[in-house]
Design a protein that fits this description.
The chain has 170 residues and is mostly helical. It has helices spanning 17-23, 32-60, 69-94, 98-117, 127-153, 156-163. The chain has one domain. 69% of the residues lie in helices and 0% in strands. Helix 2 (32-60) runs antiparallel to helix 3 and helix 4 packs antiparallel against helix 5 (127-153).
Length: 170
């Protein structure tokens, strides 16, 4: 039955047993994997935004040794825009927006790709340590990222957390 054809003598939807049962359920707790991702994104935000703000302050205070002001302003806009997107992602995960589940999963996959594809420039004193580092990079790190991605997006707790209606949607 559509809302337009609803019986005018029936009680409002907010008083039906189904609505009251759903409304009385406790809110889903945030998974630990979401806390870890939000903490990592906060550290990443601070590590990118603070140097950009310091550079902007130096430019605003009259630094005359800049060779390309347009390049620096473009870099500042890029870094501050990136930091803004990170903060928006943190807030979306905190507020359990359904789309933030997939954005967070994409970020975890990006972190994994960066961890796996970066070049190893470390010098090891012997072959045993070199082999241990290779095993850690090629086996342990991917296993941890797969577990983190699964815990963030596909466990029952995560699906319940991201499926709940947002608190500010009223």
């Amino acid at each position: 039955m559509t809302d337009d054809l609803r019986n005018p003598y029936s009680p409002p939807l907010a008083t039906t047993p189904q609505f009251l049962a759903k409304a009385s359920q406790p809110a889903a707790k945030r998974p630990i994997s979401a806390w870890i991702l939000m903490a990592l994104l906060a550290v990443l935000t601070l590590s990118t935004a603070l140097p950009a703000l310091r550079m902007g302050w130096a430019l605003a205070s009259g630094a005359r040794h800049v060779t390309s002001a347009i390049g620096v302003v473009g870099w500042l806009a890029w870094v501050l825009g990136f930091s803004t997107l990170l903060v928006a992602t943190i807030l979306a995960i905190h507020r359990a927006r359904p789309w933030s589940r997939w954005v967070g999963l994409a970020l975890i996959v990006a972190f994994a790709a960066i961890g796996l594809l970066r070049t190893d420039t470390d010098q090891y004193p012997n072959d045993g340590q070199r082999a241990g580092a290779a095993i850690a990079k090629m086996v342990v790190l991917p296993a941890l990222f797969v577990w983190w991605a699964w815990a963030f997006a596909f466990t029952a707790k995560a699906r319940t957390y991201f499926a709940r209606p947002p608190a500010d949607s009223d």
